[in-house]
Write a structure and sequence with these properties.
Order of helices and strands: EHEHEEHEHEEHEHEHEE
Low-confidence stretches: none
Number of helices: 7
Helix content: 25-40%
Radius of gyration: 17 Å
Largest sheet: 8 strands, parallel
Bound molecules: 2-amino-2-deoxy-6-O-phosphono-alpha-D-glucopyranose
């Protein structure tokens, strides 16, 4: 695992965009895994700049998003469909038919048996199949939750898990409530790629910024590999790059990291 510590959020966002841009230049039909949350916002702004100023071409790029809340429609301003449209897709020349964001609306669900709900199971299998059909994800962008989650794989998620429905932890609901009118409005369930799905990407690019992520980054990079910190699975990946700012790296052993 390559851990690169940057001066600040701006520098890590630029570095992330440079890496993705170079992969797109090498392979114009790159299969790019995308994440939501506040962390990749700077990266997306940099990619938009590269598109507008340097002609970075997304016309053949295929994207797969990690996750989506269950029960809020794509036009809802807190859905991940909306987030991606507003913060990236509407500002680059991506072909809409190359965009994949998990479905979040399934009609009435029986919460007691949603894990076996045929509509959900069928969708999740289809999503995995689509990733496979495109030859797998080339580069997967990841953020990290304060509790070490990646996508919506909360602590305790199997490190071999596949795309499925997950219940969000109270901590995640609380963290994400800043973006909703009230905590009661935050969805409790999400469709998410599994840790196993993520680990099959050819390259992983995890971004972390701010002191609120320092403990999660330490556990992911230096802690034991455990389902209690799903991001620690990255230690098993052959091409995992962790880009942090100084604050998020504050609890790492200094000799372990390189500086960007
Ligand atoms: C959500 C997303 C994750 C993201 C995390 C951290 O839970 N499902 O993919 O990494 O939030 O978000 P932020 O970058 O806003 O801290």
């Amino acid at each position: 695992m390559l851990v690169v510590v940057h001066e600040d959020y701006g520098a890590l966002s630029k570095k992330g965009a440079e890496i993705i841009a170079s992969r797109i230049r090498q392979k114009p039909n790159l299969v790019l895994g995308l994440a939501t949350g506040s962390t990749p916002l700077g990266l997306y702004k940099e990619l938009i700049k590269l598109h507008k100023n340097e002609g970075l071409d997304f016309s053949k790029v295929v994207t797969f998003n990690l996750d989506e809340y269950v029960g809020i429609p794509p036009e809802h301003d807190q859905s991940y469909h909306y987030f991606m449209r507003e913060n990236l897709f509407k500002s680059i020349n991506i072909n809409p038919s190359n965009i994949h964001v998990p479905q979040g609306m399934f009609g009435e669900l029986k919460i007691s048996s949603f894990e076996t709900d045929p509509k959900i199971v069928q969708f999740c299998d289809w999503y995995e199949g689509e990733i496979h059909r495109y030859g797998g994800v080339d580069v997967q962008v990841l953020g990290i939750g304060g509790n070490g989650h990646i996508a919506f794989n909360e602590p305790g998620s199997s490190l071999g898990s596949r795309t499925r429905i997950k219940t969000l932890t109270e901590e995640t609901v609380k963290d994400n409530s800043r973006l909703f009118k009230s905590t009661a409005d935050v969805p409790r369930y999400a469709i998410t790629m599994g840790v196993g799905t993520i680990m099959e990407a050819h390259e992983l690019l995890l971004l972390a910024s701010g002191e609120g992520k320092a403990e999660a980054v330490r556990s992911a990079v230096e802690g034991p590999i455990t389902a209690m910190c799903p991001a620690s699975a990255l230690q098993l990946h052959r091409r995992a790059i962790v880009l942090t700012d100084k604050k998020a790296a504050a609890r790492l052993s200094a000799e372990f990291v390189t500086y960007g």
